[in-house]
Amino acid sequence: MYKFEDDSFMLHTDLYQINMTKTYFEKGIHNKKTIFDLYFRQMPFDNGYAVFAGLERMIDYLQNLHFSNSDIAYLETLGYEEEFLAYLKTIRFTGTMRSVLEGDTVFNNEPLVQIEAGLAEAQLIETALLNIVNFQTLIATKASRIRQLVPNDNLMEFGTRRAHEFDAALWGARASIIGGFNGTSNVRAAKLFGIKPSGTHAHAMIQAFGNDYDAFKAYADTHSDCVFLVDTFDTIKSGIPTAIKVAKEYKDKINFVGIRIDSGDIAYLTKQARKMLDEAGFHDAQIIVSNDLDEVTILSLLSQGAKVDGWGIGTKLITAFDHPALGAVYKLAAIEGDNGEWLNRIKISGNIEKVTTPGKKNLYRIINKDTGMSEGDYITVYDEKIDTSEPLLMFHPVHTMKKKLVKNFEAVELLHDIFVDGELVYESPSVLEMQKNCEENLNHMWEETKRFLNPQEYPVDLSSKLWNIKNDLVETLSNQVLE
Ligand SMILES: Nc1ncnc2c1ncn2[C@@H]1O[C@H](COP(=O)(O)OP(=O)(O)OP(=O)(O)O)[C@@H](O)[C@H]1O
Ligand SMILES: O=P(O)(O)OC[C@H]1O[C@H](OP(=O)(O)OP(=O)(O)O)[C@H](O)[C@@H]1O
Ligand SMILES: O=C(O)c1cccnc1
């Protein structure tokens, strides 16, 4: 299908990255060491936390980073010169990558991924890294929001048909599992990522047989686990009674898992369904619902006392319907000076929240040892030591009068070495382990951070040392502009 057998992801970048690389190369600064930070500024869905996802794909991308022959030949047709192309051919990822882990709860304005690499290398990978993290983190976060509402129910991701093409369906399914879903209808995702495939059947099958009874029987003849879709003609008058009838006729010949309702008033219908199934003795039969569900409809259905055991959620999850982009950015924080020292770099903005935090940094989660709960995240200069034997002063980086003194705490490092000087030193766990990691992270978060609506802002603070460095740099640069 693709025209080039050696197509690579290297050109999955914005043209301006290649143009900047050309400038760096021709000016001889392409190998200067740099630090880039990847972070987002606004909490998605106005949620109190986000769930990080995308690391495994970033690793795969960086491991295979190279311009293929056809990439180079294509760039030649765009007019890039031979010497520059010869240099591009040599590019591999030889830098150091540090990252938070998949399933970690993360927050705005903290470095999630830190790349320490030559300027050209670090620049060229920006677009792909953002492309991966922005989507996967968004979907994992939405999945986790849904999971918080129904901690014990079966959550199935049904979105492939409405996803923004194949890749979104695949990686979105995986992200949903990291955020807490039990299974996905996408069989390829299940195969590739070792996750649970889940599914029932569609109206087409009932239509093919012409009536509920023949269709359910046909399904029962050909499967042991049976979930019957009961809303094709009339849920109360035909679908549910017929499902019960077939389940009684087949008794132990099938495992009557339950029914699915995909239209109508879900609160009313599930209450009726529960009554009818219970009266027939099928107390364990599950009621699964679907139809354009999201957090808001689920919350409303719960408040109406809907009787639901399983939720199939597609369109609104896989497209992150109410907040379609995370908005993560990738900013240069430091560059090597002529004598090998780090020169801090900053991007000034009229909006104080958008001013970048300069330099090579470390990120810690401050866990209160008395409560086991997280007091906030704390960003330091990379070689700064946190003295856990002394109380720690945490203060809001913009509204500095908001402060607290934390005692008896531990500082857990959140950025892990993934590549060191080009060598992969990290092995990704299974997707289910990532889901477990997410649950464990959430166990350290206060309910006030996790609540669905208007959560409390989670502190992401700078150490005094880093705060001073940032403010001094802002001061110096704004004075320069004035002069
Ligand atoms: N009791 C309820 N309270 C709140 N929302 C509900 C309730 N029951 C269903 N919904 C939601 O209302 C919307 C109904 O959409 P719509 O009118 O398109 O469905 P429908 O006509 O019942 O079914 P369809 O068009 O799929 O055959 C869906 O998003 C559904 O999840
Ligand atoms: O509603 P979602 O959250 O996206 O979940 C997936 C939907 O996909 C199927 O519908 P189908 O493609 O047959 O369309 P329809 O039910 O909207 O007619 C299924 O019956 C669900 O309703
Ligand atoms: O298995 C199902 O019921 C299913 C799968 C995809 C989309 N809608 C429903």
Automatic annotation (TrEMBL):
Keywords: Glycosyltransferase, Ligase, Phosphoprotein, Pyridine nucleotide biosynthesis, Transferase. Its EC number is 6.3.4.21. It holds the Pfam family NAPRTase_C. Residues 360-470 form the Nicotinate phosphoribosyltransferase C-terminal domain. The keyword Transferase applies. The keyword Cell division does not apply. One of its GO terms (cellular component) is cytosol. One of its GO terms (biological process) is NAD+ biosynthetic process via the salvage pathway. Transiently phosphorylated on a His residue during the reaction cycle. Phosphorylation strongly increases the affinity for substrates and increases the rate of nicotinate D-ribonucleotide production. Dephosphorylation regenerates the low-affinity form of the enzyme, leading to product release. It is an enzyme of class 6 (ligase). Signal peptide: none annotated. GO terms for molecular function: nicotinamide phosphoribosyltransferase activity; nicotinate phosphoribosyltransferase activity. Residues 155-336 form the Nicotinate/nicotinamide phosphoribosyltransferase domain. InterPro entries: Aldolase_TIM (IPR013785), N/Namide_PRibTrfase (IPR041525), NAPRTase_C (IPR041619), NAPRTase_N (IPR040727), Nic_PRibTrfase-Fam (IPR007229), Nic_PRibTrfase_pncB (IPR006405), Nicotinate_pribotase-like_C (IPR036068). Residues 11-134 form the Nicotinate phosphoribosyltransferase N-terminal domain. It comes from the Bacteria. Transmembrane segments: none annotated. Belongs to the NAPRTase family. PANTHER family: NICOTINATE PHOSPHORIBOSYLTRANSFERASE (PTHR11098:SF1). Catalyzes the first step in the biosynthesis of NAD from nicotinic acid, the ATP-dependent synthesis of beta-nicotinate D-ribonucleotide from nicotinate and 5-phospho-D-ribose 1-phosphate. This is Nicotinate phosphoribosyltransferase. It comes from Jeotgalicoccus meleagridis. The gene is pncB2.
